[in-house]
UniProtKB/TrEMBL annotation:
This protein's name: Nudix hydrolase domain-containing protein
Residue stretches spanning the membrane: none
Keyword Transmembrane helix listed: no
Keyword Magnesium appears in the UniProt entry: yes
Cofactor: Mg(2+)
Domain Nudix hydrolase as annotated: residue spans: 5-138
Key words of the record: Hydrolase, Magnesium
One Gene Ontology molecular-function label: hydrolase activity
Organism from which the protein derives: candidate division WWE3 bacterium GW2011_GWC1_41_7
Amino acid sequence: MNAEKIADHIAVAITKNKTGKVLIIERVRPERGYDSTHLTWAFPGGRLEVDESPEDAVVREVSDETGYTVVPLKKISERKHPQFDFYIYYVACDLDVTKIRPANEVHEVLSAKWVEPGDLLNYFETNLDPKVAKYLGVEVNKVDAK
């Protein structure tokens, strides 16, 4: 039985490993934004279930999509996404390397990858939140240029 989800609220995990690389996923079915951008690569995450916090949602979604277990640290930012019809929460997370299992959501995620923060814009067509960029050390002028 699937829990009811809040259709327009998304939480994503901003997770760095010990070498400073960031976890991203490649979606099986990219979404198209208002301005024709495609959401192919993204931070792992998904829709909040009813009465679920963004922090709880990222723990569940990262585990389902990648098999990794994360520990939420703090909310970095939240906003109405400028290119998609949803409200999004960005949650900084630590990786728990003691708890890794196979991913459940193989129908949603094609692959998971660890990338240097400065390389994110090579994967993302969509707008990178300025507070997330600052948290990751990505130059803001590069974010605004997208």
